[in-house]
């Protein structure tokens, strides 16, 4: 698909979008629906089935049935072939999936389509792990002749509760380890972005994933709450805000579910005086403004060494003013709208508080108006200068296109300030000095440290957080381990 030649997906010919349970598209038992609209134009995209506790019950039952059905009897190589077919299908249909995401959340189509390579790579990486799952034969000191070994078995039914800021990518990231491990899943996409998850579920069936292995229950917060406490769910994988994550962990405790959570962030991006500014300036802007700032690992706290601060901030402000904010379907657009009016009001509230607490908006600070912008939820990319570490905008996750800038003098000082947060998801460091890079990488308490780059991801490299940014890791060889139980087997030979 060429950008600028926009084709509305045939998927949206169905104004009423049903859930996917047991291999069938079905309405909610209550008959209720909710609307999903384009945040750039207000256009109605679909009326989506509004699931409730009863719908969760039937989805979990379908997943439980599939867990012990034909899916459990497939050989690893057979499961691998299905996953490779799915990877091919996702890539072949990615223009459609990307368009659904752009229409649903307002991310520029130029950005949505970049996910094609990552989606295919993730599924192929997990497919490669299928045939490597194994137990171990272990020596023991038991009396007599005793053989001991372990088995690796699927954990069971997984509830995947997804955020709205990267819908199709998150569907793939959640489904990959489920399929590779032999588990089954009930996926709850965010109510703001349900469309691509439903289409992904259809592609799973087309690839040969048995009915009931992947289920998609759409709805509001009640669906996530029901999944979190459901006795038929064995594990929860949640990505989203720290506040919601805390509620899910509490609900899951009642049935001792396994839980992995990837939560919020307030990530530091640190620029030393010896950095390559030609690279660091645009990267600092992209680190926070990409996807309208709606990325958990966004570099929202910018620390610039004092000796280059004035030059850096001038260049950053000038660069930010060149960023085009507008129609997500325009190939020149770099930033689209935020996802909803509620999100827009929340972000504007933080911007207002930042000014009242004494910070100065060097760039932006307002809702955009005029021409195309009146139709949607557009906010100017905003840079706050004169920010103190104690200010609200310096401490709390805004999840919008808002950057707080600070200055620092020494590496020891900035390391202490960078770590003075309850979050610990990601970080960036810009320096040409190898010793500085290594010291900062060791000292920063965050799950990812990007040196002279930002927001890089790869299927083989783990991603996750410290502190209230969550626990567990996604991607990498340990990801699938979180979906497996280890069983010890003892055999008395004498």
TrEMBL record:
Q: Name one Pfam family in it.
A: Aldedh
Among PROSITE patterns, the record links this protein to: ALDEHYDE_DEHYDR_CYS, ALDEHYDE_DEHYDR_GLU
What is annotated as the active site? Answer: 262
Q: Where is the Aldehyde dehydrogenase domain?
A: 32-489
Q: Which UniProt keywords apply?
A: Oxidoreductase
Q: SUPFAM superfamilies annotated for this entry? A: ALDH-like
Keyword Oxidoreductase listed? The answer is yes
Give me the segments passing through the membrane. none
Q: Which family does it belong to?
A: Belongs to the aldehyde dehydrogenase family.
User: What name goes with this protein?
Assistant: Aldehyde dehydrogenase family protein
């Amino acid at each position: 698909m060429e950008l600028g030649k926009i084709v509305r997906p045939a998927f949206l010919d169905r104004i009423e979008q049903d859930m996917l349970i047991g291999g069938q598209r079905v309405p909610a038992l209550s008959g209720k629906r909710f609307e999903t609209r384009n945040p750039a134009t207000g256009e109605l995209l679909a009326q989506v089935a509004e699931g409730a506790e009863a719908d969760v019950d039937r989805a979990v039952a379908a997943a439980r049935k599939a867990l012990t059905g034909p899916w459990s009897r497939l050989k690893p190589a057979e499961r691998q072939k299905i996953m490779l077919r799915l990877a091919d299908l996702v890539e072949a249909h990615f223009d459609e999936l990307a368009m659904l995401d752009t229409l649903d959340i307002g991310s520029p189509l130029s950005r949505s389509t970049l996910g094609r390579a990552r989606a295919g790579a993730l599924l192929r990486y997990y497919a490669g792990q299928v045939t490597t799952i194994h137990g171990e034969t272990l020596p023991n000191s038991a009396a007599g002749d005793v053989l001991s070994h372990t088995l690796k078995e699927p954990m069971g039914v997984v509830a995947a509760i997804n955020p709205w800021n990267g819908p199709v990518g998150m569907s793939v990231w959640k489904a990959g380890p489920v399929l590779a491990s032999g588990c089954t899943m009930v996926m709850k996409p965010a109510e703001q972005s349900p469309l691509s998850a439903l289409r992904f579920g259809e592609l799973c069936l087309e690839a040969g994933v048995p009915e009931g292995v992947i289920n998609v229950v759409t709805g509001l917060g009640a669906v996530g709450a029901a999944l979190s406490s459901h006795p038929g769910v064995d594990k929860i994988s949640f990505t989203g805000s720290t506040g919601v994550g805390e509620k899910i962990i509490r609900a899951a405790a009642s049935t001792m579910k396994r839980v992995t959570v990837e939560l919020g962030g307030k990530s530091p991006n640190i620029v030393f005086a010896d950095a390559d500014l030609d690279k660091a300036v645009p990267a600092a802007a992209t680190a926070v403004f990409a996807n309208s700032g709606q990325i958990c690992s966004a570099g929202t706290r910018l620390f610039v060494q004092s000796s280059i601060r004035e030059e850096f901030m001038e260049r950053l402000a000038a660069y930010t003013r060149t960023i085009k904010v507008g129609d997500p379907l325009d190939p020149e657009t770099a930033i689209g709208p935020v996802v909803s009016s509620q999100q827009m009001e929340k972000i504007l509230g933080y911007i207002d508080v930042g000014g009242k607490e004494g910070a100065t908006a060097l760039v932006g600070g307002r809702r955009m108006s005029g021409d195309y912008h009146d139709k949607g939820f557009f906010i100017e990319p905003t840079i706050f200068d004169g920010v103190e570490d104690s200010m609200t905008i310096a401490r709390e996750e805004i999840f919008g296109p808002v950057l707080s800038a600070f200055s620092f003098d020494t590496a020891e000082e900035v390391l202490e300030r960078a770590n003075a947060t309850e979050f610990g998801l990601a970080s960036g460091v810009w320096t040409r000095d190898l010793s500085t890079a290594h010291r900062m990488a060791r000292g920063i308490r965050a799950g990812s440290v990007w040196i002279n780059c930002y927001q890089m991801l790869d299927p083989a490299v783990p991603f996750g957080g410290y502190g209230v940014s969550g626990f567990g890791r996604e991607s990498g060889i340990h990801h699938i381990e979180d979906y497996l139980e280890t069983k010890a087997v003892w055999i008395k030979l004498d």
